[in-house]
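4.2 Preliminary Data

To establish feasibility before requesting continued support, the project team ran the inverse folding procedure on a target of 262 residues. The structure was first converted into the token representation described in Section 3, and no sequence information of any kind was made available to the design step. The complete token record follows.
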């Protein structure tokens, strides 16, 4: 039996498709040397544990970081990132590493690599996921102890990801504002670090409305991130409240590193 899709949902999906197409087109003509944000989720131990594009092995993660550094790319801290968003042409060949949700594997597998190479990184934390188990992969989310230890490292930048990992499009404007503000306040209170960056859960136009993006601009953040491919140079199109990020998965690493012999 076929499922009827409402005209409104069809329109939202078409909007998301066109939006992604434009970002990819802009990436091809503007992305070569532009500053960019890379997005990761779960950094697993073995290839057998790669259950989707949102999981990458720790070997591939280390390989990718090594590849970026060897080809002369410069990692960004929080202050450099804010400048790169405002003046992307000044910060060519710069990148920032980001993680969403946060799996405990970020602490066990990714953090040692980043620390050894002195690469700053942003963790977009959802308070309701702390010390939980991902029902789809059965993998553990970050423990309070590991989160606190990472937060104490100057390399670690704390970002907000909403109080719960839900589609913001389904919130009322007041509910969205409350989640944005409360997640920032909660993280700052628990971890003792200023929270300046926000990433929308899921991060596509299907899950994030224009109203959500405008609401974020009024919630005392420096900028916000989507989950759609592109560079920071495309701020003029996306605004600084829905900045593109590049999802790095096994396919991306294999294609990029193989071309350059890494």
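Position-by-position output of the design step:
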């Amino acid at each position: 039996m076929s499922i009827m899709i409402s005209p409104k949902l069809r329109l939202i999906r078409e909007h998301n498709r066109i939006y992604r197409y434009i970002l990819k087109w802009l990436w091809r003509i503007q992305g070569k040397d532009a500053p960019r944000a890379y997005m990761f989720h779960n950094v697993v131990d073995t290839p057998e544990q790669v259950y989707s594009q949102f999981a990458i092995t720790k070997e591939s993660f280390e390989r990718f970081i090594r590849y970026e550094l060897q080809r002369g790319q410069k990692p960004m801290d929080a202050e450099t990132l804010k400048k790169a968003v405002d003046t992307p042409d000044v910060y060519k060949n710069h990148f920032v590493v980001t993680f969403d949700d946060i799996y405990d594997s970020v602490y066990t597998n990714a953090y040692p690599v980043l620390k050894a190479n002195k690469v700053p990184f942003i963790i977009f934390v959802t308070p309701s996921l702390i010390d939980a188990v991902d029902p789809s992969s059965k993998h553990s989310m970050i423990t309070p102890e590991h989160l606190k230890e990472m937060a104490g490292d100057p390399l670690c930048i704390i970002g907000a990801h909403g109080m719960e990992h839900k589609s913001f499009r389904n919130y009322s404007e007041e509910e969205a504002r409350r989640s944005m503000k409360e997640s920032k306040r909660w993280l700052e209170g628990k971890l003792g670090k200023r929270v300046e960056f926000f990433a929308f859960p899921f991060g596509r136009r299907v899950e994030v409305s224009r109203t959500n993006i405008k609401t974020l601009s009024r919630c005392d953040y420096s900028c916000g991130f989507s989950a759609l491919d592109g560079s920071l140079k495309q701020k003029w199109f996306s605004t600084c409240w829905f900045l593109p990020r590049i999802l790095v998965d096994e396919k991306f690493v294999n294609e990029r590193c193989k071309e350059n012999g890494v």
